C-alpha cells in the first residue's frame, strides 16, 4: 500500500447540488477543443473565470491593513462575495466547476464525439456507466433482483467447497471482503523490489443486531435464504455481531503488531508454499483465480502467527452457519447499489459503522452512494478511463507542460534550499539530495493516459451495460481495486505510471514510499493557475502547493523514508534533533492560534494535530518564492532584489512580491460555518484557512519587507525565539 498525504482532504468533498446556481450546459464536448475557456461557470460572476487583477481586486478587502490581518486583506472580498454559498472555499468551488464539466461530458450524446474510434469507445463506456448510475427508475424497478445471482453463487461456494482459497477468491471477485483484502504492490517501508501479494485486514462492521437482521431478512423475503426449522434468526444475528466484534479485535491486534515491528519483520513474508503448508490449504488456487500467476511471496500486515491461527480457525465453522455470515457481508458491501429501501439501510446504518486497520486503503469502498454523486463515482470506479476523458476534454498540453516546468524549478529550488540549511549537517544533506534526485513527479496525469489504445486495452475486460447499474458497479469496483495489482505482477515498479484518485478531484499527494508527488489535473485550471496570470500569481498559488508536497518528503513523517521509499535511519542524531526542535516551534506557534465562531467565541487550533501540514505549508511557500524569483529575474534580466520592487503591470500598483503573497493568501480563502469549523478543528490535520495564511507569513521576512510591516505589528510579530523555520 502507498502512504499518501492528501493536501485538501477536508475541503474537496462537495455534492453536485451544494451550490444552487444555474449553469449553462453549452454544446456537445469536442475532444479536440482543449483550452482555458472549457470550464463550467458556477456563479453569476463567472467563477472560476476570474483572472488577474479582477480576481485580486474582487477577492481582497483593501480596507484591511495587510500588516494587521493579511487573511482578511486577501480574502475579505471573497467571503463577502460568496457568503450565500455554504462553506465556500476556492478548492470546493474549483472542484464543483470540474465536476459539472464532467457531468456535461458524461451526460452528452455520442454524436458529439467525432474523434478516433478508441476515444469514442472509451467515452461511451464511461457514459454508459454514468447513465446506469443516474437511472433511478430502473434501479428502483429492479429492486432486490440484481443481488440474487451473487448471493446464490456465494451460497454454493460456502456449502460445497471446503477450500478457503477458492471461497475467498470468489468473494473478492464479487467485491466482498471478509477477514482480508489483498493487493500486489510495493510493501510500505521496503525497497521497490519488495513487491508482494499483501494480506491486509478487511474492514469490520460494528453494527447493531437490528441492522444485520434487516439485511438477512431481505435475503429471506426474496427466497434466497431459507432457514431450517431448527434455526433461529435472532441467534444467527447475535452470532454475526459477535464475529464482527472479533474481527475488530483481529484488526487491533494486527495494528499493534505492525506498529511494534514498524512493518519490517522478516517473519511477515511467507512464500506461497509456506502459507499453504501452515494452513493445509492450497493458496495457489487463490492466486490463479485472481489472475496473479507469478506471485511467489506474500506479505502479512501485522503478526503472521495471528493470521495463520485465524485462517485455520475458519475451518471449524459449519458451512451452513458460515453462509449466513457471507450473505451479511454481501449485503454490507453492495446494498448501496440497490433500490432505495436497501440503499437506505446501507447509508443510514452500515456506512458509518466500519472499523479499518491503520493502513486504510478505501479503494474497495465507494466514498458515496449511487445517484447522489454519480459523477464522482464514475471517476472513482473508472479512474484511468475518466482521467483520459478529462484530460482530452478539459485540459490542454500547454497547461501540463508549463506546470511540469514549474515542478522542475521547485525541485531545483528545494535542492538549493537544502544546501543553505544551517541546522542540517552535510551527511544528512547528502542523503536528502539523493532522495530529491530520485523524486518522481506526476503532473496532471501519466503520459500513457493520453494514448486511447492503451487505455482501451486496460479496460477491455469491463463489460458495461445500460440499465444494469448493480452489475456495472460491482464489476467496476472490483476491477478498480485488483486491476493495478494484476498488471503489476512480474514487472518492476514504474512510478511515473501511477495515478491516485480521479482526475477532477481537487487534490495533490505526496506518496512517501514511492518518493513521488502528484498534482491532479483539476489544479491546472483557473483561477489558481492560468497562462494569462503573471508568474508571480501562479507561483504563489500552484507553486506553493507543489512546494508543499515536496516538503512533505522531509517533514514530520517524510523523514522516515529514504531515497527508495524505505523505512531507514538516514538522519544523523544532530539533524534529527534539529528537525524535532523545528517541529516543536511550529507546534507551539499554531497552538496559539484561535478561530472565531459566529457567536464571538473562539476555538484553539491543535498545533500537534496539524504540525506536519504546517511544516509543509511553510516550506512550500519559501520554496515557491525562491523558485519564482530565480526564474523570473533570469527571464527579465534583472537582479532578484530589483524584481521584488518592480510593479506588476495592470495590477493597480502592486509589486511582483506583493502579488506573489496575495496569490498565496487567496489560495486559502474560505467561508466555513461553525459546524464545518468545529469538525475541521477536531479532525483535520490541516489548520483552518486563516491559520494557513497567517502562520507562514508571520514566519516570512520577505513578506514583511514586501508590505513594509513594522516589527511588532500582527503580521511581523516580535518573538523571543524568532521565526519558525525549517525549509
Would you kindly provide a written description of the structure presented here, covering whatever features stand out?
- The chain has 727 residues and is α+β, with helices and mostly antiparallel strands.
- It has a domain at 142-376: Neutral endopeptidase , domain2 (Neutral endopeptidase, domain 2), CATH 1.10.1380.10.
- 51% of the residues lie in helices and 7% in strands.
- The protein is built from 28 helices and 14 strands.
- The strands form five sheets. Strands 1-10-11-9 form a four-stranded mixed beta sheet. The chain has a four-stranded mixed beta sheet with strand order 3-4-7-6.
- A hairpin with a 5-residue loop joins strand 12 and strand 13.
- Helix 23 (611-636) packs across helix 27.
- The radius of gyration is 27 Å and the shape is globular.
Amino acid at each position: 500500500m502507498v502512504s499518501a498525504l492528501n493536501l485538501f482532504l477536508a475541503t474537496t468533498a462537495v455534492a453536485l447540488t451544494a451550490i444552487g446556481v444555474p449553469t449553462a450546459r453549452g454544446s456537445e464536448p469536442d475532444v479536440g477543443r482543449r483550452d482555458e475557456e472549457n470550464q463550467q461557470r458556477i456563479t453569476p460572476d463567472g467563477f472560476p473565470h476570474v483572472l488577474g487583477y479582477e480576481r485580486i481586486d474582487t477577492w481582497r478587502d483593501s480596507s484591511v491593513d495587510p500588516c494587521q490581518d493579511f487573511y482578511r486583506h486577501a480574502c475579505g472580498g471573497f467571503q463577502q462575495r460568496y457568503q450565500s454559498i455554504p462553506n465556500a472555499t476556492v478548492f470546493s468551488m474549483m472542484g464543483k466547476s470540474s465536476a459539472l464539466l464532467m457531468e456535461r461530458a458524461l451526460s452528452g450524446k455520442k454524436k458529439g464525439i467525432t474523434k478516433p474510434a478508441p476515444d469514442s469507445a472509451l467515452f461511451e463506456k464511461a457514459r454508459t456507466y454514468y447513465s446506469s448510475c443516474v437511472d433511478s427508475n430502473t434501479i428502483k424497478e429492479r429492486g432486490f433482483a440484481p443481488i440474487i445471482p451473487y448471493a446464490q453463487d456465494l451460497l454454493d461456494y460456502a456449502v460445497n467447497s471446503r477450500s478457503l482459497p477458492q471461497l475467498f477468491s470468489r468473494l473478492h471477485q464479487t467485491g466482498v471482503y471478509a477477514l482480508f483484502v489483498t493487493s500486489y504492490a510495493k510493501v510500505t517501508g521496503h525497497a521497490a523490489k519488495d513487491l508482494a501479494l499483501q494480506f491486509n485486514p478487511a474492514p469490520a462492521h460494528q453494527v447493531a443486531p437490528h441492522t444485520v437482521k434487516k439485511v438477512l431478512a431481505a435475503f429471506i423475503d426474496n427466497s434466497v435464504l431459507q432457514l431450517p426449522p431448527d434455526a433461529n434468526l435472532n441467534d444467527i444475528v447475535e452470532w454475526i455481531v459477535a464475529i464482527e466484534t472479533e474481527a475488530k479485535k483481529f484488526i487491533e491486534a494486527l495494528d499493534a503488531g505492525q506498529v511494534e515491528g514498524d512493518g519490517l519483520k522478516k517473519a511477515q513474508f511467507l512464500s506461497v508454499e509456506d502459507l499453504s503448508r501452515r494452513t493445509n490449504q492450497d493458496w495457489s488456487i487463490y492466486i490463479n483465480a485472481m489472475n496473479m500467476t507469478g506471485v511467489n511471496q506474500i506479505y502479512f500486515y501485522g503478526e503472521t502467527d495471528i493470521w495463520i491461527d485465524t485462517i485455520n480457525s475458519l475451518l471449524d465453522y459449519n458451512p451452513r452457519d458460515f453462509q449466513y455470515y457471507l450473505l451479511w457481508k454481501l449485503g454490507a458491501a453492495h446494498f448501496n447499489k440497490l433500490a432505495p429501501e436497501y440503499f437506505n439501510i446501507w447509508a443510514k446504518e452500515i456506512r458509518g459503522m466500519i472499523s479499518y486497520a491503520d493502513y486504510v486503503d478505501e479503494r474497495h469502498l465507494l466514498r458515496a452512494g449511487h445517484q447522489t454523486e454519480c459523477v464522482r463515482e464514475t471517476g472513482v470506479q473508472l479512474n484511468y478511463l475518466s482521467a483520459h476523458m478529462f484530460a482530452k476534454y478539459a485540459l490542454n498540453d500547454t497547461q501540463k507542460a508549463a506546470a511540469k516546468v514549474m515542478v522542475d524549478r521547485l525541485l531545483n529550488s528545494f535542492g538549493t534550499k537544502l544546501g543553505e540549511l544551517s541546522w542540517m549537517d552535510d551527511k544528512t544533506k547528502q542523503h536528502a539530495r539523493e532522495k530529491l534526485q530520485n523524486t518522481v513527479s506526476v503532473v496532471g496525469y501519466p503520459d500513457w493516459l493520453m494514448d486511447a489504445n492503451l487505455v482501451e486495452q486496460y479496460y477491455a475486460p469491463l463489460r458495461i451495460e445500460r440499465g444494469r447499474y448493480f452489475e456495472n458497479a460491482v464489476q467496476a469496483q472490483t476491477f478498480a481495486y485488483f486491476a493495478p495489482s494484476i498488471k503489476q505482477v512480474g514487472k518492476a515498479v514504474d512510478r511515473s505510471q501511477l495515478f491516485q484518485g480521479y482526475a477532477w478531484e481537487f487534490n495533490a499527494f505526496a506518496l512517501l514510499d514511492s518518493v513521488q508527488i502528484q498534482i491532479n489535473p483539476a489544479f491546472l485550471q483557473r483561477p489558481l493557475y492560468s497562462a494569462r496570470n503573471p508568474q508571480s500569481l501562479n507561483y504563489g498559488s500552484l507553486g506553493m502547493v507543489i512546494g508543499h508536497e515536496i516538503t512533505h518528503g522531509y517533514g514530520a513523517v517524510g523523514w522516515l523514508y529514504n531515497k527508495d521509499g524505505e523505512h531507514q535511519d538516514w538522519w544523523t542524531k544532530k539533524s534529527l534533533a534539529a528537525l524535532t526542535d523545528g517541529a516543536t516551534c511550529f507546534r507551539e506557534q499554531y497552538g496559539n492560534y484561535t478561530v472565531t465562531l459566529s457567536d464571538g467565541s473562539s476555538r484553539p487550533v491543535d498545533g500537534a494535530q496539524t504540525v506536519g501540514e504546517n511544516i509543509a505549508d511553510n516550506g512550500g511557500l519559501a520554496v515557491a518564492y525562491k523558485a519564482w524569483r530565480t526564474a523570473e529575474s533570469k527571464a527579465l534580466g534583472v537582479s532578484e532584489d530589483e524584481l521584488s520592487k518592480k510593479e506588476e503591470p495592470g495590477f493597480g500598483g502592486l509589486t511582483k512580491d506583493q502579488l506573489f503573497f496575495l496569490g498565496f493568501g487567496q489560495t486559502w480563502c474560505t467561508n466555513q460555518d461553525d459546524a464545518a469549523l468545529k469538525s475541521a478543528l477536531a479532525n483535520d490535520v490541516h489548520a483552518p484557512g486563516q491559520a494557513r495564511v497567517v502562520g507562514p507569513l508571520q514566519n516570512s521576512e520577505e513578506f514583511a519587507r514586501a508590505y513594509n510591516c513594522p516589527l511588532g505589528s500582527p503580521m511581523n510579530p516580535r518573538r523571543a525565539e524568532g521565526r519558525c523555520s525549517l525549509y
